[in-house]
Design brief:
Elements (H helix, E strand, L loop, with lengths): L12 E2 L2 H23 L2 H20 L2 H19 L2 H10 L1 H10 L5 H17 L3 H13 L1 H11 L4 E2 L1
Parallel strand pairs: 1-2
Length: 162
């Protein structure tokens, strides 16, 4: 069947949903990263190291899709390590609009390297069993979303709904 003048339309990213999603992520991931810091063993740290190594590899290849998957794996691993894997399932629903915007930010020069650096700081704090430092590093990491989106909004205003 042919339907004249039909097509696929992608809805704009609703900017108003992003601060709320960041708030939810900060609350839940702050709690999971603190808990993970208390109980992480060598296997848990090795798991995070493997993910960060993968991020470095795919960033070097410029593969933003694989990088996004590895980024997700890092955050999911922290929830698993904390003993609260269900938190990640909740977060996946809450962060849909953030993910749409984040995928647009990854090609920005230096963005993937910055994420890797932030993840390494979080991993190091977990490895030291320093829950407060891990939480602070996670907050810095998650707070970066809003300025990144603001930059994109100025460059691609048609991608966003206000």
């Amino acid at each position: 069947d042919i339907f004249p003048q039909s097509g696929t339309f992608v809805s704009r990213v609703p900017v108003s949903a992003i601060p709320e999603a960041v708030l939810i992520r900060k609350a839940l991931e702050g709690a999971t990263v603190e808990a993970a810091s208390e109980i992480a063993d060598k296997a848990a740290i090795d798991r995070l190291d493997t993910i960060i190594t993968r991020q470095r590899l795919v960033a070097g290849l410029g593969d933003t899709s694989a990088f996004h998957e590895a980024d997700e794996a890092f955050h999911e691993a922290i929830a698993d390590i904390s003993g609260h894997p269900g938190v990640w399932k909740l977060l996946r629903q809450a962060k849909v609009q953030i993910d749409r915007a984040r995928r647009l930010t990854l090609p920005v020069l230096g963005r993937m390297d910055r994420v890797i650096s932030e993840h390494a700081i979080i991993r190091d704090a977990i490895g030291r069993h320093d829950g407060q430092a891990a939480k602070e590093a996670m907050m810095i990491h998650l707070n970066a979303v809003i300025p990144d989106v603001d930059l994109l909004r100025s460059q691609y205003p048609d991608y966003f709904a206000f």
